[in-house]
Predict the structure.
Amino acid sequence: MKFTLSWLKDHLDTDASLEAIVDKLTMIGLEVEEVEDKGKLLAPFVVAHVVSAVQHPNADRLRVCMVDTGTGAPVQVVCGAPNARTGLKGVFAPAGTFIPGKKITLSVGTIRGVESHGMLCSGDELGISDDHDGIIELPADAPVGAPYAAWAKLDDPVIDINLTPNRSDCTGVSGIARDLAAADVGTLLSKPIHPVKGAFPCPVSVTLDFGDTPSLCPAFGLRLVRGVKNGPSPEWMQRRLLAIGLRPINALVDITNFLTFDRARPLHVFDAAKVHGNLTVRRGRAGEELLALDGKTYALDESMCVIADETGVESLAGIMGGEASGCDEGTTDVLIESALWDEIAIARTGRRLGITSDARYRFERGVDPAFMLPGLDLATHLVMELCGGTPSDLVVAGTPPIPDKVIDFPLDALPRLAGLDVGLAETKRVLTRLGFFVAGQAKQLKVAVPSWRPDVDGVADLVEEVVRIVGVDRVPLTPFEREDRGRKPVLTPIQSRTRRAKRALAARGLTEAVTWSFISKKEAELFGGGQPELALANPIAAELSDMRPSLLPGLIASAQRNADRGFPDVALFEVGQIFRGDRPEDQFIAAAGLRRGLARPNGIGRQWRTGAQPADAFDIEGDALAVLAAAGAPVQSVQIQPGGPAWLHPGRSGTLQMGPKLVFGHFGELHPRLLEALDVAGPLVAFELILDRIPEPKARTTRAKPPLDLAAFQPVSRDFAFIVDHAVKAADIVRAAQSVDRKLIAGVTVFDVYEGKGIDPGKKSIAVAVMLQPREKTLTDEEIEAVAGKIVGEVGKRTGGVLRA
Amino acid sequence: MSEISELEARLLADVAASADEPALEAVRVAALGKKGAVSALLATLGKMSPEERKAQGPLINGLKDRLGEALVARRQALRDVALDQRLATETVDVTLPLPDSALDRGRIHPISQVVDELTAIFADMGFEVAEGPDIETDDYNFTKLNFPEGHPARDMHDTFFFPPKPDGSRRLLRTHTSPVQVRTMLSKAPPIRVICPGRTYRCDSDQTHTPMFHQVEGLVIDKGSHLGHLKWILAEFCKAFFEVDQVKMRFRPSFFPFTEPSLEVDIQCRRDKGEIRFGEGEDWLEILGCGMVHPNVLRNCGIDPDVYQGFAWGMGIDRIAMLKYGMPDLRAFFEADVRWLDHYGFRPLDFPTLAGGLSG
C-alpha cells in the first residue's frame, strides 16, 4: 500500500516529521517497507537554460551546449539528445551527481575531445518516467537554478507499507490516518459527505440474479451522471497517482483509482452509451469471455461473478472492468458503480485468472459495507466537480450488510493476555479514536466494532488494538518460571537416535549433507518410490517432483556434483525423513551414508602408508554398524545377511536385520546399473538404515549398571585354520565354533582369510582364534584338546571345513 | 709385583680391550670359567693352611670382585654403544603427513548444530521437543490454525500440493511447523511447553528463499502465560543463542491468523562488511514472529480459551544460523558442497551445551 506524505495530510492534521510518522507506522503494525523521497534523491538536479547548442566538432549526433544553471557562468555540456537546442529549458545535473535511473555517479568527462561538466537529463535518467527519447523540456517560465523536484512537485515522499492481510481498512489513506491519530500523531480530518440529490431517475436498472445459487453480491449501487466532459484529470490527482505507480488515464477513471487508494473504496465507471439496456449481476457462464481493461481476454465460468448488460458480460465483478464499456475522452454519460462482493469468490476468481488488481486486493480483504453508498456519493461529487454533468437518482440492488458486532470486554483481559494494565481511560481513548464505540465505566466494557474492521471479532482482537496503539514496548518483561517441572530428558527416543547417529557418522569422518526432500521421479522409482500420491501437483522444478523414498538419490547426486567440481573423494551422510506413503505413519527417519572414491575411514585420498585403496563394502558396513550402535540397537543380535535390494551390487552387499521381519537396512557397493541409470560415476559404496525400526531398549528402573562379572581364571586362546569352499560364509564357521560350548567359549574371532598359492582353487582358508574362559578351575591340556576336537568336528560338519595342514 | 696383581692388571686390560660382548665373554670365561685363571687361584685356597688362606683369601677374592665389577661395567658400556649404533639406523621421517583424523574430517551441518543449540536452550527452560509429519492435511496446516477458506493469508504461503484424492481432499507439504502445535494440543492436555523444529516447504526460490527450509516454533499453553512472559523468553533465548550479554529487541504488531495479538520481533545489530554483530549498532533485523495463541485455534484444538491461554513463536532455523555464523546465501545450505560444509560445518565433538558454551 503506497501513498504520499501530502496525501496522508489530507486526512491527518499533524506537525510530525516524516521520520516520526514512518517510525510510528511501523510500531503500530503498519510496517513501512520503503520511503522514497524524491526531493532528497533529486536534490542536485536543477532547472537550467540552454544558452547555446552547437554541433559537436567531431560527432554528428552530439551537440555542445552552454547551459545556464543559475549559478555563475554557463557550464559546457556535451549532449546527445535529439531535442537539445538553443533556448530549451531542461533539467541539469552537475558532475558528482548520482543518476538514479542509470545507477551511476557523473564525473567530468571528455567526449570526443570536448569536455562535459554535467548532464541534461531525460525522464528515464531521473527515474520519474520511461521517457528516454530526449531530454526533459520545461516550460519557458521555469525558474533557472530552482531545484527541479520541488519545482515539479515531485518532492512529496512516497511511503510504502507492507500491509498485513487483516487490515482492509488501511488499504485507504484515510484508514492509515485514523490509526496514526489514535497513536497521537495528529488529528484525524474527516469531512462529511453530503448525499447527492438526483435530478432525474436512473434509466438503467440493476438486478441481482443468482437463481438458487449463493449470492456473490450482497449489494450494488449505481448512478448515472449525464453530460460530463471527460479529459485529463487535474494535475494534483495525476501527480498522486503517478507517485504511487499508477498511470493517469482520464478524469473518470482516475477518480475511481484515486478513491480506491484514498478511501479503500474501489469503484467502476461504465460509459453509459456503450451499455445496452439494464444491468444484471450474475454468475458467469461456461463459454463466456471478457476482453478486460488490461487488453487480455478471460474465459469465465459459474464460480465467477460478472456484470452483464443485454448483449453480454461487461465487467468482471470487483476485479476488472471490460474494454467494451470503458470510459474514454468521448464519454458524455457515465454510470458509476459502487458494490460489495463475496470475498472468497473474488480471491478465487483472481487466483484462477491470474489477475492482481487494486480492486481485487481490497475486495478479497473486505471493504467497508457502510461506505458503499457514501463512496458512491463522494465519487459523484468528484465527477461533477472535475467533469461537470447532472446526477441521476441512486439505484441500489440488495442491502449492504452492516455488521452489528458488540464485544463484551473485561478490562482485566489486558493484564491477563498482554501483561499490561493501561487502565480504563486510556483503553477507552484508544478504542474510541480507532472508531470503536465503548460503553460502560466499570471493569466490564461493551465495545461496538466499526463497520470497517471485519478483522476484530473478540476480546483478543481488542487487546491487540490497545497494545499496538499504546506500544508493545510498554509490556514489561516477566520472568517465566520453570516451576516444579521435572528434569527428565526432553528428547524422544527417535530424536536422541537421530542426533547420536549424526555425531557417530561425523566421528567416522563423514560430512553431513542436507538435501531436498523431493527428487526426480526417475530417482524415486529407482529406490522404490514414485507413487502418484507422493508426486507434487505443483513442483518447483521437474527434477524436484517426488517425495524421496530414500536419502541415497540426494547423496549420490551430491557426491557427483562434488566430483564434477574436482572433489572426487567424498564421504557424505544425511539423517532425515523419507516417505513411503502420504500418511504420517509412512514417514520414517533414515540414516544414510555414502563413500565415493578414496574416501576411506582412516583417510581421504591416496595415502603414503596404504596406497590408493577405494572405499569398499566393509568400510561402509562399518559406518552402518556404528549408526546401529550409536542408536542403541542390540548390536550383538544384529544379523548380517548377504545381498540386498536391487540398487546394490548383488555380491558386495549385505542386509542388517534381526530376523527377516525386522530389517534395519542395507549396505554395500551400488549396483553398476543404478549408477548408469543415474548417470553417475562409481564405484560408490553406501548404506541406509531406518532408525524408527530399531527396537527401543527396555525401560529400566535404575541407572546403576549390572554388576561386573570377572572370571577368576586365565583365559586360553587357541587358533584354528580351516580350508573351506569359497562360498562358505565366515559367520557360519564362527557360529559353528561358538555352538560347541556357549559357556566356555567366550569369543571367536576371524584373524586371517587366505586364497591363492598353497590352497586349491575354489577353496579358501579362514583362521579363527577361539577364546576359552574357564569359570570353575584352570583347564587341563586334555580338556582344551577335547574342546578343540569338538570345534574341528562341528565346523567340519556344518561347513565341510577341514583343518589346514 | 706379586703374581696376583700381575694377573689383575692383565685381566683388567683384557676387559678394557674387549671390543664387543663376545670378546668380553671370552675374557670372563678365561678368568672366571671352570678353567679360568681366577677360578684356578680360588681353587688353591682349599689346599692352603689357615694362615696362608687368611693372607691369600682377601687378595684372591678381591681380584675376583674387582674383575666382576669391571666386567659388568664394560658390558654395560658395550651395550650402550651397541644400542646407540642400532638407534642411529632406526629413524623415521616424522614430517611425513598423517591423514586428518576422522574426528577432524567429519562435519555436522549447521542446521543440525543449531537445532541442538536450540534444544539445549529451551530444554533448560522446561520445554520438550515435538515433531510431526512433513506431509500434512489442509485442516492441520491451515483450517485449525484459523486461516479462513479462501483467505489471502493462504496465498502468502505458496503451498506445495499433492494430487486431489477421490473425495476431493488433498494433502500438502506443511508450510510451517505450526501443524505440530496443532497435533500437540490435540494429543496432550495443558500445561504445554514444546518447541517444534522441522522442515517446511513453500514453492518459492531466490537468494533468500528456498523451496525447503527449516523452522522452529515454540508453544506455551497454561492458565496465565502472557505477552510479558513471551517477551522475556525471547529475550533470554536471543541472549543465549547469540551468546551476548544484552540484546535490544523491538516488538512490532503484525498479523498471523493463528495468533492475536501478533508481533514481529527485530533485534538490534550492527552490519559491518558482511558481518553482523548483535547487542550493538543501529540497524534492526527481523528474526521471528510470535503472539498469543488465537482463541479460535485453542477451540479448534479442543482447548477452552476461557480457561487456558498461551503464546507461540516461530523462526527460521536456517536464517538464525546464517545470522549467527555469517553464511551469506541460504541456497548453499542444501547444495552439499563439501567445501562449504567443511568451512561452515561443525566437528562431531562440538556438542552444544549450556555448561560448555553453545559454540564451544
User: Anything to note?
Assistant: The two ends of chain B are 82 Å apart (CA to CA). Chain B has a mean pLDDT of 90. Chain B touches chain A through 94 residues (CB under 8 Å).
